[in-house]
Design brief:
This protein is α/β, with parallel strands linked by helices. It is built from 24 helices and 24 strands. An 8-stranded mixed beta barrel has the order 16-17-19-20-21-22-23-24, surrounded by 4 helices.
Length: about 625
């Protein structure tokens, strides 16, 4: 008989099925000449449990009718057979060793499950139990040295196995799509990443396409969950066909699973590289492109796919699926209806971003932030009119970080509010100290950047009023900068806040003007006093001049800047040009009519003590005097 083993398994002891009968019963002679009591023979023959008596050599002495029926053969023909071959105990080393231990009397029982083949070719699952007969010694022999030593019993457990298989299938498959579920997917993934699965052949690589349907919630909300379930089932059918068409000769079709909600995954074992996964992801998107016909509805759906392919060695299921989930997020962030390949460098940036976000608030409490100041210089005389406060983060791990590395994070998690208060208070204190240190010079104003979330999530007016009162700085020496996109869309509370600050005497500046809405009609109704022209206009002067040789600025750029300057002046606003880097740029901007300039021509952002060196300096031509005071590092 052929079969497969599941190994020895413990089970409840049912007690010996055969015992010695009373001496008064009439004896009966068996195949080996041994005498058998009639009661024993009757119980053994009619028992509903399939049994056989095995001698110390491992040969069948006799088998009952139930065993013959179970195996599809005459029970008498089983006498003399090797018991281990009859129920396939020698197919694996562990079971064979355990059986030999029972046969020698060194083990009390063996119980295992085997797949047996009947004489008619049909297979069945059987639970096989081997144990010494009652009254036998350690060697498996009775006291007279002549009695059989073992009882072999076989129970048909096919129905139970079938029920277990059905229950496992229900447990491991999604009822809506009939695809493998998350549990089965991770079971397969874990098995594929085990060392023995790839050390003896295969490519030693693995890949995952992790996809999410775009806008599926709208389908449920609009058409109901029943239609949504039908759509998921239809998507599953297309994904399955796509996987079958992409089947690889070595590894077969990818495993398609529904991980939950509208998320699916395709697992490719023994992948051949990123090209294979990229082709599969493209095929998935193409398969989902045609509309779905669901009863009387015609629905279209797209998907975003995150693709990860790597060596199996050193990879864990958690790490692989984290990478897939991150890549799926990138695909959605990049515009949806596309696939994106995992990028280790991009992921490292994401990890750094998360690390920064986690330590932002504690960094404020630990005092890891500092301010540097960049001069705002009068275009006509070169004197410092004010400074812009620029924050730096002295991170213990990543070094000095510029604001573009963490301000967006602070706005996302709300820490921009306490950070903004600290910037405002520190900058105002410093401006007051400069004023007191240089009483004979006109006081300079300080310009502080304000995020929109500060306007919404805090009482900015009260914060400014308290800071000005605490520091003694005059309101007209404080300028608050908001980006053009933030100011131009202001209505309700933001607009009220800006007006209240302006009424207080604080100057409001629009930063990066000319790159956002540029709604000039709306500009006239805002309490704004300063426009800061985006540096792209000024940089255009330099690049176009270099491209055209010994010429001047790009006429178009000059016309645009000149028009904005004239408009601002007609509205009573002053204009600051950002990113001024050359004397030629400064000369043209001065001719156009810009009021102040800011850029490396004058100074990079510097520590507070170096600003003191600028105060009172103005040499020939204006800007040269500023540079002589602080230098351009």
């Amino acid at each position: 008989m052929n079969g497969t083993s599941e190994g020895p398994a413990p089970a409840a002891y049912l007690g010996p099925a055969v015992t010695e009968s009373d001496d008064g019963l009439a004896p009966r002679t068996g195949r080996t000449g041994r005498t058998e009591p009639p009661a024993y023979r009757s119980v053994f023959t009619t028992a509903p449990l399939a049994m056989a008596v095995v001698d110390a050599e491992g040969l069948v002495v006799s088998a009952n009718d139930t065993l013959g029926t179970l195996l599809g053969t005459d029970p008498a023909a089983l006498a003399g057979s090797v018991a281990a071959d009859l129920v396939d105990l020698a197919s694996d080393a562990g079971t064979w060793h355990a059986y030999r231990e029972v046969l020698r009397g060194h083990r009390s029982r063996l119980r295992c499950t085997r797949r047996l083949k009947r004489a008619d070719g049909h297979s069945l699952w059987a639970q096989v139990t081997v144990e010494p007969l009652a009254g036998t010694g350690d060697s498996g022999d009775s006291g007279d040295g002549d009695a059989p030593g073992l009882l072999l019993s076989v129970a048909d457990v096919s129905a139970r196995r079938e029920l277990q298989a059905r229950l496992r299938h229900l447990q491991m498959h999604d009822p809506v799509t009939r695809l493998p579920n998350r549990a089965l997917f991770f079971e397969r993934l874990t098995a594929a990443l085990e060392a023995e699965s790839y050390e003896h052949g295969g490519t030693g690589r693995i890949g995952v396409c992790y996809l999410d349907l775009d806008g599926f919630k709208a389908v449920n909300d609009t058409h109901g969950h029943r239609v949504g379930d039908r759509l998921l089932a239809a998507v599953a059918e297309r994904l399955t066909r796509c996987a079958e068409e992409a089947a690889h000769a070595r590894s077969g079709a990818p495993l398609v699973a529904r991980l939950g909600g509208d998320e699916f995954a395709l697992l490719v074992e023994d992948s051949t590289g990123t090209d294979q996964l990229a082709e599969l992801a493209a095929a998935v998107l193409a398969a989902l492109q045609p509309p779905f016909e669901l009863a009387d509805r015609r629905l279209s759906v797209t998907a975003s796919v995150g693709v990860v392919e790597r060596h199996t060695a050193g990879t864990t299921p958690t790490a692989l699926m984290q990478a897939a989930d991150t890549t799926l997020y990138w695909a959605k962030a990049d515009g949806r209806a596309r696939w994106t390949l995992f990028d280790p460098e991009r992921n490292a940036n994401r990890m750094t971003r998360q690390a920064l976000a986690a330590t932002l608030r504690p960094a404020i409490e630990r005092g890891e932030f500092a301010l540097e100041y960049q001069p705002l210089v009068g275009m006509e005389d070169g004197r410092v009119r004010g400074v812009e406060a620029l924050i730096r983060w002295n991170h213990p791990q990543f070094g000095v970080l510029a604001p573009n590395r963490f301000i967006a994070l602070a706005e996302e998690d709300g820490s921009i509010v306490p950070l903004g208060r600290w910037i405002l208070r520190t900058a105002c204190h410093q401006a007051r100290r400069w004023q007191l240190a240089h009483p004979d010079e006109p006081p300079i104003f300080v310009s502080v950047n304000v995020a929109v979330r500060q306007v919404w999530d805090s009482d900015l007016v009260a914060d400014v009023a308290h800071t000005l009162e605490e520091t003694g700085l005059a309101p007209e020496l404080l300028q608050l900068e908001l980006t053009e996109s933030a100011v131009m869309g202001s209505a309700g509370r933001p607009l009220q806040v800006l007006k209240a600050l302006s009424d207080m005497g604080v100057h409001i500046a629009i930063d990066d003007f000319g790159t956002g809405y540029s709604n000039l009609a709306y500009l006239s109704r805002l309490p704004v006093s300063v426009l800061k022209l985006d540096g792209a206009f000024v940089r255009g002067f330099q690049y176009d001049a270099a491209a055209s040789g010994a010429g001047g600025a790009n006429p178009a750029d000059e016309v645009i800047v000149e028009a904005m300057v004239q408009l601002a002046h007609r509205l009573g606003l002053t204009v600051t040009a950002e990113c001024v880097e050359t004397s030629a740029q400064a000369t043209r901007l001065r001719r156009i009519g810009c009021d102040t300039g800011q850029g490396w021509l004058y100074s990079r952002p510097v520590a507070p003590d170096r600003i003191s060196a600028l105060l009172g300096h103005a040499g020939p031509g204006g800007p040269a005097g500023v540079q002589s005071g602080v230098g351009n590092p």
